[in-house]
Queue: 3 jobs
Job 1
Amino acid sequence: MSIRVDPATGLKLFDTRAAKASERIDGTGYAPVDNESLTTLPEPPAGAVFNAVEQAKYRDFKEARRGAADYIAMEGEFSKYLEDVYSDEPIPREALEDECQVLVVGAGVAALLLWHKLQGAGFEDVRFCEKGGDVGGTWYWNRYPGIACDVESYSYLPLLEEMEYVPSMKFASGFEIMEYCQRMAEKFGFYDHCLFHTTVETTDWDETTRKWTVTTNRGDSMRANFVVLANGILTTPQLAKIEGMDSFQGDAFHTSRWNYDIDLKGKKVGVIGTGATAVQVIPEIAKVVKELYVFQRTPSSIDVRDQRATTEHERRAWANEPGWAVARRARFAKISAGRTAMKANDDYLSGKVADFKERKQHARSLTAEELIEKQLNTNFRIMEQIRARVDAIVEDPKTASALKPYYPYGCKRPTFHDEYLPAFNQPHVTLVDTAPRGVSQIDKDGVVHDGKNYPLDVLIYATGFQWMATSTFNMIKGRDGETLRQKWESGGTKTFLGIHSHNFPNLFIVSGPQGGGGSFNFTNAIEEHGDYIVWMLQTMRERGATVVDIAQDYEDEYADHCRMADIVSQPLRNCISYYNGHGEAEPGSLAYYGGGQWKKYRREAQQTLAPYLFDDSASGVNQPSDRDKK
């Protein structure tokens, strides 16, 4: 039976996990590379400074691409690119018309970790809705050849000690991470609480019942005291809008729906896109295809990966070091420089040395502008090394020139690989430079660019995802009948801590817009947000409160802080990137750039409870914030 009742608790339990569609869905991630010339960056050129000439070069590079990012709605004939190719048909079940205490949207790493925390705090009446057929979130949907985590796995994977698990590689493959998520779900009883192949369609607040009504594509109409959005920040695939793309007669798919029924061996294959996904895909499929054409609008920064296997010494040491994984992740969270974090120095993370870098002493405290200038110069030197690496590895001068990125380090998502650049030295791999506007036409035979035809058997879209723009925001209606997206579009993105939004009571958002508390490791953020949500539920339980909202003035203040933090640090993101809405996002509307200030806002709120509007069931009245009392 897909739905049963637990006789001990009276709660409904589910068995809706779908079977894997094919055993062909398998692969590996980064392979260790022994060639030192491929795993070492060239030294930075002497006297490299981000001067006016270099700034102008960056500016021209950016402006040439402004407005080039144009994407289509994945509906109608393009909805096929969203189909779940990883699981068998959904498990049949009856539609649910009942209640639960907490309903969580998503079944990725954030949801798994939140379930573990909620269980520990005594919250059992928790239900999860997941559009996929199994757990994993981004690791469920992204199963392309070569997929791996860019954050070291010893810090990324949560609950390693509880799971008695040590990753096989420093940078684990996505397939290993997916299997780890499944192990977590089995160990902690997650599967009993999750409705798979269930897409939330509407989430409406009912002021009369003071509950959320959640409907799904399976005919469910469920009521929940609390709703948690834990469905990720890069969950909705996007397709570049290209003339004639519907006319292509070969096979085509998006990298997040990799079709393993299509054998690429001996085929002519095209990949559109050269972002983080393509950088991992291209070296792998280059090993089997007959011809590979890579269509690039903007090059990524290709840094050294230097992958390695976990050593036996590490396994023995960690087995005798209680708390090793939590301590390692805590050290990781202290790293303030993106590249330093991604390189993941083992001596620092293992505690052998006290700091991740040598600290410089200044005669006086530097201003914010001076700190930005200092960081821009540091980033420029790193980019000079990355560009020098291209020249050192890629043999064809024209190809090498096209592969060099000109923007601040970290403005676009940094990538790491030791086999990507060498792939372009292979005779059957061709870089097609489509800068600055991208591919403009596709016909029935393949891609047409600059008057030249590229006939293809298979066309792969590595065109990424919408950043912090999940469709869920358009399906949530708060107290006044306005959706969350409508609120943010009319008055600007406004939250408190990125977790609450005024007039959307009992709603919690994990790692959404303005959500701080993290580091360059996503797991830090979801741990912070999970701990906060559990704290709030415990606080409400203790005081008998049934509803919590956020005071408008506190939300306004926090949103303004997010805006100013974004503006101050904007020079570090002066390029066209999904991080800044392709150059069109309003300051403060997407990611959080306030650093440690988020924790300050959180601590003060938890200590005073001033920002919160509680409805205490004992009194039946809304308790105003401290500011409202003045």
Job 2
Amino acid sequence: MGKTFKTIDEAVIRFAGDSGDGMQLTGGRFTETTAIVGNDLSTLPDFPAEIRAPAGSLAGVSAFQIKFSSKDIHTPGVNPDVLVAMNPAALKVHQKEIIPGGTLILNTDAFTKKNLKFAGYESNPIEDESLDDYFTLIPVEMNKMVTAACEGLDLSPKLVGRTKNFFALGILFYMYDRPLDATEAWLKKKFKGKDAIIEANTRALNAGYNYGDTTELFMTRYKVEKANLPSGNYRNMNGNLATSLGLLAASQRSGLKLFYGGYPITPASDILHTLAAWKHLGIKTFQAEDEIAGIGSVIGAAFVGNLGITATSGPGIALKSEALGLAIIAELPLVVINVQRGGPSTGLPTKTEQSDLLQAMYGRNGEAPMPVIASATPGDCFFVAYEACRIAVKYMTPVMLLNDGYLANGSEPWQVPQLDDLKDFDVTFADESNLIDGQFMPYTRDKKTLARPWAIPGTEGLEHRIGGIEKEDLTGNVSYDPDNHHYMVATRAKKIEAIANEFDPLEIFGNASGDLLILSWGGTKGSCRSAVETLQADGQKVSHVHLRWINPFPNDLGEILIKFKNVLIPEINYGQLIKMIRSEFLIDAKGLNQVRGKPISSSDIQKTAKDLIG
């Protein structure tokens, strides 16, 4: 019986192994090739916080999941069709999530007595038939295979053993009819000058592909047709890179010099790394000694007329909070990016969460309102970063941008936008026209935006006071007057509220009224949209609204909410947006709250929605 091709709409695969097995690299190469093939895709990297957990331990398992499809998809999937497990620990951690009847590709050479015991197995699951009734089991001696493939190369056994991830990648390329040439070209570029390394990994890749072709273990190959995406130029994009590009675009469109000051912290550090490589584009980066120095440098940069940017995660926001109050009272334009992770404290540094929303809203002393905007997908990080910069400058205010670890590290096909299609980004600095009777008044305000003028220090005639003590209206002089303080507090709040006048009407996916509205923010958009599509296909009267701006809320949100019998708000926290919605609009919204360090699944949203509707 010959091998057959089966065309499928979508597939979910997961690579898992020890931290040193190269699972993130393997997943990245499969993702890049899948993007070249033209499938829609979504990824979920999942790696441990430890720099190097003990080899073979459950805590040291690193995984990479990708869902790819010939149709439009919104999530990286939940339960994989295929698991590639490079050792017993990887199988132990991920086995329970594989679909019934799914495929397990196991590196049998790693299933030694020592590794089995370390992973908590009393017997070898490959040999005791405990997997046979539930999965399609494909055992492969990967270490031996790459040793044979690399015979004759002047490399140590250890280096040869490291190529086994490319052997596994070759098998998956064969299973899903993916070409090898893009990965072979990448190897030549990545390891230029290291010919033996290039040759070893190339041999391992081809050995894996040929193993799938020649063995009878893989009798069915799968084909996922090219997705019908809008025409344009696409590239595979992750959230941190998209954020960096959005900041760069804001600098280019505005003509402002971009200054980034920050302290490395997972999962935001890649933004600093990326921007630091763009010095030739006029970007200045400063790696500060701590979070407080980072925000201090950005406040100074904004004061002298730069586009000031900093990025961190929840613990860093806590340290920056006093300085953010200074930026608010001084009314300086800067953007603070919080790539959220599991908390509190150090928490889960490499896992995703949405638990910093209330911190972004209220985590400063005094009445200190700040605009809060959140990205929805990895590619959306570009547009949100650009918009955050534009609003910061137009309204002379710090802006909080909320991403999360899932968006920052995940990727999707991204249509490269034209800069001319972005909103205009005009910048006006104070000049002689801002003088009143020959005196510069730093707290006069634009009638529409309530923004104060941006005066560059050292400009003759525009000398003024600035600092953290309350300002007198117009003059900016220090003032302890009770009425003035109340007026300035109210004015700063009204300025933030006025930003909502910029927003387009909210998009309602579905009918404008019905049994249930699912309201989402941040990285839950994909799961919510996927759930609503399924529920609508089942005939349910369910709609979906996604919020990009959390502060201020869109002006039409209240009118939308009251037209639905029920409102469900899924969040990767213990209920934060729901508190704000209940308080602001006095509706009995219900929450779906999971704080597991993972995205909420579409199936969980569907189940909760059906329970609510009854």
Job 3
Amino acid sequence: MRQPYFSVAAKYADENRKEEFYSTVEEVLLKVFKEGFNKDTLRAGLNSLEFRYREADFGSYPPGLMYGLQALDSWLYDDELPFIHIEADETFKSLRKKIDTDYFEQLIKKGLIDNTHKSKVTVVPKVGLSYKEEEELNKKLQEYKESLSKEELLKLVQDTKELLAYQEEEDTPESLECIPVLEISDIKKEAAPLINEEKSIGTAKSLYHEVYTNGIDYARILFDATNIPAKYFPYLSLLKGMIGLVNTKNYTYEELTNKSLIETGGITNAINLYENHINREEYRVTFEWKGKCLEGDLDKVFNLFEEMILTSDFSDEKRNKELIDEIKSRNQELMMSAGHTVALQRAMSHVSKSAATLDVISGMSAYRLVEKTGNEYEEEKAILAENLANLCKALFVKENIMFDFAGSKEEYEEFAKQAAIFMSKLPEKGESGEKFTPVITKENEAFTTSAKVQYVGVAGSFGKNNLKYSGALRALKVIMGYDYLWNNIRVKGGAYGCMSGFSKGGEGFFVSYRDPNLAKTLEVYKNIPEYVGSFEADNRAMTQYIIGAVSELDTPMTPANKALRSLSAYMSNISYNVLKQEREELLQTTPGTIRGLEPYMEALLSDKYICVVGNKEAIEKEEKIFDRLSPLFLA
């Protein structure tokens, strides 16, 4: 598309208020044009973009690939300008100079307010539409079938048989030989090192990762949330979504956001759960603060940490309601687009205490709390404000703290100094009380939607039978994804995708993505042990599976990801020798090794913990499978 476009969308909105939505957008644009942008907001936005540009953190994607895609953004439209989005120094310099002019306001006027090329689109769901369309399709197909002669019907049956045979047919050795393949000997035998140096800052532990970061400091504060009072524990998910976005002692939330993006590369938070590799029953939940900045700016990061952690104000009922509604909307959007994640996480929550805990802080139970708080806000608003304030007092204390840093040795010294100053301002201990204990329920669940597809998940434990995790399970995951599950669920079943996973803690799952089937998919899962027990593959195929598994282990890592991998191993009590053994087991995997995993699959699937997210009619047809059916969104 030669013309760039700008869009504003309201999701899960009331159709009857669409004119109000349209007029609000136009009024806001006109107001911005007349009164002007907040200059600090412009600086914050531009600084954030430039920081990301210079950091060049593409996650697990190779930088070369991402730079190539960026080049296409301009190269497709002008043969002379392939690098303008890669060599963007001049672009940022030019835009920075224009902040104190009316350039951005005029851009709003020309590109949006005075633009005559506009469209207004309303998409409204209709209850029962997918079921009606399915019935119409079935009727049409039946009429077509009745119009066929006996010979045409026989030919249709024969064509279907030939299609199924083609889908099951393996490629010939001659065809496969056309594709070059690495040898196992080409793969490095050593696991990537863990870069951890244990230190201390006062009475607190500190972990240092000496990695080259191109002049960027990565600071992290971890607060152990495992032992906070049970009554506050479920509110961790709400605290994550709200703290940093409310007023503080010295700043409004708008000013705080601007200050964060102007002075740093961003301040964010996360909730993590670390399972103890040695003892599966032990785990830690942490509330973590992350800040990144250019070298020399760590004092600014810690000033912002202090402002948000110690002075956040949850008394503004209007702002709290706005944030709850935003969290609810984001969750709903994610749950609809990634229903497989909902299905597998919920199924896993019936398997182990750690997974049940994750459900409370980031899964379906966490969403239900958001939903209830938003839907019953008048009754819940005082409880929300009180619990968030008390949670901060119980959580953000010295006895819960640990520090983590990635950057140069010189910068670590400054980090330690700033961390000590910050810690001196924290209370020693927080409120004590009965510790949160997850409740593991034994049930199969389904969550209904108006979508035409399902996300079918099943989970279980092989560790319960004292079967130890092996690196060979990584190869099995690839085999599942590119052979058995691929052929039966995607090729034959018509699903968009299929996934599996096996944890060091002894749990595993299988899940489908945008799947037109339900019972058929569960039958495919049921036959996994038989497939694994009779598995055969020649040397070439086995090598490909192992390479596929190694590629996940050897994903390119940014400096921040190297530090995070090392931190995660440390928190989970995973040593380098454990990673080394896992890699050795993977590289030594043979078809016989895979066949030896049949008891693992039998144990896992014997639990029969099922969770499905999908079409209401399709689920109700198979309701005998489930102990409980409920709408994905209650309101």
